[in-house]
Design brief:
The strands form two sheets. Strands 4, 5, 6, 7, 8, 9 and 10 form a seven-stranded mixed β-sheet that branches. The chain has a three-stranded mixed β-sheet with strand order 1-3-2. The chain has 432 residues and is an alpha/beta fold. The chain folds into two domains: 232 residues, no CATH class; 156 residues, von Willebrand factor, type A domain (Rossmann fold, 3-Layer(aba) Sandwich). About 3% of the residues have low confidence. It is elongated. It has 16 helices and ten strands.
Length: 432
Amino acid sequence: MNCEKNMDKEILIKKINICGRILGASRSSLYFAMRFMDTALCAFEYKADEGNHFAGTDGDCIYFYPDYLMERYEQEPKLVNRLYLHMTMHCIYRHIFRLGSRQVRLWNLACDIAVESVIDGLSYGCVKMRMPAARDACYRKLHEKCKILNADLIYRFLEENPMKEELLTAWENEFLVDDHNYWYRKDKNPQNRMKREQKWEDISRKMQTSMETVEKGAGREDKGLYDSVEIENRKRYDYKEFLRKFAVYREEMRLDPDEFDYSFYTYGLSRYGNMPLIEPVEQRETKKIQDFVIVIDTSFSCSEEQVKSFLSETCQILFETESFFKKVNIRLLQCDLRVQKDDVITNHDEMKDYINHLTIAGRGGTDFRPAFEYVAGLIEKGKFDGLKGLIYFTDGRGEYPKQKPPYDTAFVFLREDYTDAGVPPWAIKLEI
């Protein structure tokens, strides 16, 4: 019995060693084809996991079932190359950290489709394989609704267009490559997960820079890969954090428990000895937003429904937090080739009424410059006490100002378009 156990253990060790060499060979093949991925490909340890009959990663290790990996390699070495690249790209896109409140099943499928669509678009011999008809049909169906096949947009498609169980299972089987259970394992120390996510964000940005500079040819040749990495690396701004940039200090009629009138304090000490009288200050200095400009692109590319959705979300964030003073000065401009409409909003109720009775004025082309010129005129006329920022809701296609205005500016793009080419470096790009 002991002899059999020893033999089994020796066989397992040999298999693990063989798998290590297989993964090393796969990594080398991918590296020679895509040198800009050097750091990403070398970011893993290899560990056997007999408790699983598949392969997967948690961002630190590639876990594999030896027999599965050996059978896959024996069948076709390219399959291991694609497996290795597939797991690496999940990490580059940070899929393993972004489940949030999404449905696990749909998110897993969306991530697999997103990664495989990029790999299928590569022309490198180490990963190039014939595309099955079912996979091509899936891509075509998704492209009808999604301009970019990234995980977020594919997930939204799957969520908004429920499929029959048979078709959903067929898609899962078609794109199944690795085991995602490793993504959702809980760490005893939550800091470990944060460190892994930061590690892959750094690797992903380094890879993008490499494609843009050192590997210029690769950046142009592998446009699908480069575009997907660029999209995932775009900074995602939180509206609340973003709005704090535009805040100014003002005094509000509000009790401040951290401050008190020293005259009462000293009077209490002199009158009663050890009993100071504390009266909170009724005015408190707070940093909030008072002046703000929202410009709506009223060209044909932005629908009334999209504008209402954007304003509703903005209104909810702004007025359900303490971002603004009770009395505000929000200028809502509608602009296509010129400023078509200028409305002043001073409180939450006026904003809600504006959204409910919104009518789009214009419907011409797009030129961003007239709105900035108009705001400059308002500043000269003293219409703002301290304008700190402007948000421009648009599809991104138009003429931008050449010079930076004296306030921060953000261009907000439709989430499904990702069309922000030409945005000047002084402006912030937001995607919602």
